[in-house]
Amino acid sequence: MDGVILHSNPLHRKAWEAYSRRFGIEVDEAMHQRMYGRRNDDIVRDFFGPHLTPDQVREHGAAKERLYREMMGPVINQSLVPGVREFLARHRDLPVAMATSAEPENVEFLLDSARLRTYFRAVVDGHQVRHPKPHPEIYLKAAEMLGAAPRDCVAFEDSFAGVQSTRSAGMAVVGLTTTHDELPEVDLEIPDFNSPELEPWLASR
């Protein structure tokens, strides 16, 4: 979702910086880089320390995401990755799933606010799996919910952890350079869904 459907990472960075600063923590670039593709509980323990209780981890994560949604709300439609709505509409006859490390509230927020819910036959968030990315569980669960073999699936990813997850699941992967300038080990690399290479590549599979 983040970095593939919604160009949200810049606001996630700002939200993490603003929220962490309340507790005297300055988020540097290395911390931001470790954030991409990971589930909130991993990020909170990384930023705030491993001593937190599960309840404290959930409270920090939920508070940060409330701040993020406040920031994203007014700009959500113009923050969609270019061409993604049109791409989903063109392929609405195919089984499409969303497999994301994002918090469930953020998933619902995007699907409803940007009116994208009808395009997805299955949605799997980070709290529906035992093992977060880069483990392949989330992609394997999404394929199972679609009734598809992983080898017949194409995943779209923007993070290193996500690419590793799809590869371990046995899927082909299209890398979007919305978060990183280069994504190694992808089958096709594109800047966004308006890329002229995308549709011919999909048709050739």
Describe this structure in words.
With 205 residues, the chain is mainly alpha-helical. The chain has 2 domains: 9-75, DNA polymerase, domain 1 (Orthogonal Bundle), CATH 1.10.150; 77-203, Rossmann fold. Helix content is 44%, strand content 9%. The protein is built from 9 helices and 5 strands; from the N terminus they run αααααβαβαβαββα. The chain has helices spanning 9-21, 29-35, 40-48, 54-72, 84-90, 104-113, 137-146, 160-169, 198-203; strands at residues 97-99, 122-124, 154-157, 172-176, 188-190. The strands form 2 sheets. A 3-stranded parallel beta sheet has the order 3-4-5, covered by helices on one side. Helix 8 links the parallel strand 3 (154-157) and strand 4 (172-176). Helix 1 crosses helix 4 and helix 3 (40-48) packs across helix 4 (54-72). It is globular and about 50 Å long. It starts with 8 loop residues before the first helix and ends with a helix.
Brief sketch in words of this structure:
The protein is mainly α and 205 residues long. It has two domains: 9-75, Orthogonal Bundle (DNA polymerase, domain 1); 77-203, Rossmann fold (3-Layer(aba) Sandwich). The protein is 44% helix and 9% strand.
Layout of helices and strands, plus pairs?
Layout: H1 9-21, H2 29-35, H3 40-48, H4 54-72, H5 84-90, E1 97-99, H6 104-113, E2 122-124, H7 137-146, E3 154-157, H8 160-169, E4 172-176, E5 188-190, H9 198-203
Parallel strand pairs: 1-2, 3-4, 4-5
Helix pairs in contact: 1-4, 3-4
